[in-house]
Amino acid sequence: MMSGKLPLKPEQSHFTDGQWQSIYDGGSNLLVSASAGSGKTTVLVQRVIEKIKSGVDIDQLLIATYTEAAAKEMKERILTAVQQAITEEQDVEQQRHLVNQISKIPAAPISTLHAFCLQVIRKYYYLIDIDPVFRLLTDETEMLLLKEDVWHELREELYGEQEEWFYPLTENFSGDRNDEGFSQLIYSLYEFSRANPEPKRWLDGLLALYQGEEQLADTMVYREFIRPNMLQVISERIEQGFSAVSSLEGEPELAKPLAILQDEVAILEQIYELISAEKLETCHEMLKQVEFQTYRGPGKKADDVIKEAFESTKAIRNQNKEYINEMKSGFFGIAPDAHLTILKRSKFYIKNLSEVADLFDKAYTAKKQEKKILDFNDLEHLTLRILRKKSGDDWEASEASSFYRKQFKEVLVDEYQDINQLQENILFWLRSPEKEDGNFFMVGDVKQSIYSFRLADPTLFIEKYNAFAKGEGGRRIVLAENFRSRGDVLAFTNFVFTQLMDVSVGQLDYDDQAKLVHGFKAFPKTDDFKTEVLIFENDGLENSEEDVSEDEVSEDFVIDDKTEGEIRIIGNKIRELKQNGFQVYDKKAKEMRPLAYRDIVILTPTKKNNLVILDILSELSIPLYVNDTQNYFQATEVKLVMALLNVIDNPYQDIPLAAVLRSPIVGLGENDMARIRLQRQAGNYYEALKSFSKMNTEKFSDEEKNLQKKIHYFEKQLAGWRELARRKQLVDLIWKIYQDTGLIDYVGGLPSGKQRQANLHALYERAMNYENSSFKGLFQFVRFIEKMQQKEKDLAEPSSIGEDEDAVRVMTIHASKGLEFPVVFIMDLNRRFNLKDLRQQYIFDEKLGAGIKYIEPLTRVEYESLPYQTIREEKRKKLLAEEMRKLYVGLTRAEEKLFLVASYKNEADTWKKWSKAAEIKTEVLSDQLRLGAQSLMDWLGMTLVRHENLKENMEEHVEDYQQKFDQSAVDFSVEFFDLDKIKQTEAEATTNAASIEKPEMVTNNQTVEEQQQLAESIKVLTFEYPYEVAAQTASYQSVSEIKRVFEDPDNTTLLPIEFVNGHGRIKHRFAEEKLATPKFLSETEEVSSADIGTATHVVLQLLTLAHPPTVEDIRNLISKLVTNHSIAQEVGEKIDAEHLQRFFETPFGSYLIANQKFVSREQPFSMLIPAKDIFEEFPEGIDDRLLVHGIIDGYIETSEDLILYDFKTDYLPENYIDADLNKIKQRYQGQLQLYKKALEAEKKRPVTEVKLILLQQHLVLEMT
After folding, report:
1. Is there a binding annotation on residue 38?
2. Which tens digits make up the pLDDT trace of 514-532?
């Protein structure tokens, strides 16, 4: 039936030509490249139906789906289609055949590949001599714990027996505290090798890239990978350099930068010639001598055209400089002979790594056999062993393979772009081996391959995509028509990807075959659906690009970081859409209708911001359904039960015990805890608790007696729980805890009580599942949960909002794949690409093998081996290609409207970053620009600036602007939001919502008594607490929080108190909402400017003023402070002693030394300020005061003068101007006014002078 000519497509058919061919074509292997929204599932189901109608039984078709949900949906759709075909069929025999399929569909081979593999193993286990009785290991954490147990045993064995090579191997990949780094390497290497059909062979092949020769230029890794890549990039840089040179030629005022450019292009040409001639040592020596001059432009008086010409070359010059520096520190950072030495030593490590990974594989396999368990990867490897057998050096089909090849008339694979090499091998032994008469049907879209973390290999799809286009091995069918989205969405997507995606960066050309074609024409024409780009200006906020000290952060806003800013922009936009009656098209009703919340989705790169989104949108009264918050173990009630389980397992754990004692389970207060500790100040807290419990109560106060009763009751409960933990199952223990404490009822009365109760029930169910694993008991469960949290394998909170409710959806781009929504917001688009894999000690590639960093044992200096450098560049391209595909998936989820949300420092900075692409003449952006991008928004921005809409913005920043697109191709808008604009938008939306939602009072047909009752009820319900403002005002303020109030010394009208949405949240607030992260929880080890500033103040506080300090004096003091741990060593190294010494040579520095006996330094102060002096709208008649606390750097008090001074370490450019100084003075005006107010109050005399000292510039500024 499906071979030769296709049946003629009826005129009234709703299928496109490509869909028709996909349904009916046959007689060869077929690859259907189905773009987003092209109806691939419909096509797949219809092909199956036509196969059945042609006489094929459903169990003669193997249909492999990517998920169980997809398999279930496929069966349901096939069942529905078969039932419909039965009602329409007139032929009795055909009808009988169709009816027969109904009973076969439930057991038909329509499943994930893993599920099919399980069936194969159950049937043919005897071919490979394995026990058919086994449990499937599905829990990732259980698997991880099992691996750790196996590795611990193997590692101890290797330490004992193989120390001559195992110790140095471990040291190369471990830190100075433990060998966790090496353990992670073994796990990763094992997992990566298992995606290969022959893991042992792949491990043995790792040595290929490490084969050394006498000369570096003769090694395979250099000859085949490094050299060609360097020559290509240098050639591109030379071409760009000549382009920049031509821009400056002929202008006398640009002679100096022109000469610099010419010299640097000449350096690149020399490097190219030396590499071409294999003179690597000469090139290494030459690069050591290269130094760069300052690239200065024309003077201030130069013509604007001259300035623009210079500015247009800066990016190219910087890129060339950066590349040369990369070569100096990278490949040519060490001599060629050193590279050879590292290659040989790395080969030793690679050989041993391969052996250890193989030993771990064998030990882990043995442990699983002992426990009679298999994991998903085992299913695939065992199936492959069943399907093929070795014949000499070749593989041939086994009995099982022959059976399946005979049974299956066709093998159909959905989402083919997401399979790996191992799965491809399995499919080979299930389908016909004949290329010319194949029966392999593959459907997918490589542009949506975003599962590399599951070891998917999109190159399998790409290879067939290119080969089948030429008729080699099969035929290619392209489904380009998109029936999901408006033309606005499709045009924008094509506009972006035409410029971004090609083979070199993206692994696939975005050509006419790949472009989306508008297929659904029924959308009504309107201008409301152009894509909107929303940019939050985060200048000065957390996560912005400038490093600012704590003193510099203004508290005059609600928004704490860029994430909250973006979420508020989204929330305000959603409210605006709803309030303005925005409409979307209902495809089923075939008419426009008002936008519902369920029509909207917010796509995020990760789940980490889900709770923040939930909080802020809830505040804005926007209903939300979060698909997977992945913060279950952060819920307070769950943390409490886990702390109690820890105590039951081992009460000698202070932190869990303190958490339980302070919780409602025991109910101790802070003073109670202190009383207990005072009875036994040394040792762990449990001993102190027991000691207090046994004390004689004769001298106890009533309060202490009550405390002891509480402790006795808890001890009795704890003893009972511990006994239960030894005798009963874990689920019995947890349920007993719930009963004894009444915890479920208690949390039900708290805010979000329904959700909290669901969380506790989920913990009980999780424990029940755990009991069915290979681990048992309370200790193992606690370890199990700790491991989940360490590996960020958190569970999703059970949602208290149903999927069908009218609520905005939040999910990751990965989770959105296959879904569609009328309105799509994609946020956090300028989140940096996750390239951490490129910075690890090791890196893997399916074809190239493994690259490692080599650490010199004695010096601990780290070197990148040449295979590491090679694989890293290949991996970088693959990671960026996947990021590009993630962007494609995100854009194509939208049916009608796209909102793209990101953050930049400010508008000027945004245009500057995007303008890098404005001079590119080719349609596709250069490799250098695309590979150099750091985020999805960088890519998007560089495509947007080449559109007519942004022409005016770009012509201000670049000289040779290249417009490539106009409004006929696509239309979009870019809008910027600063703090004030967000506040204004939010206030307007709140006002509009209040006016819409305010109910009218109904008085018709009411008696006087009823009206009086109604009035009384309204009075009660609308009662406003007269002291609400006082209740919302902080009682304590630090100087850094309140300083903005005092910026203007003449300002007596202070900032008002404002509230948002009636939720009692202070909009203009002066209290920190977010506590500083403790040092032991800090994620960054970088020294910040704030750290340096703090340490500098410590040095100035302790430095003797008895004589003019020398540089040596200051350095000795810093060394002393580092030794006694007053400041960190890395911070101490950053303090510039010479800068500090030069300050004391200034007139004011000399004055300090001369009057050192009158100097007071680092003076803390506290003062009370009436609240009405801080807040304009504070109610009259309320005598509330605020406690303000701070520390004054220093003051000089003589009989004539009281001089206040303050040190700052702020950065100023070398060529600073008065405006820069005024900006700094303005920044600290409020702080110093408050210091002055406090000092005058303390000394009962006026401050005569206030001085702001800029240490970096040795400037002393007079403050008014």
Report:
1. yes
2. 999 999 989 998 888 999 9
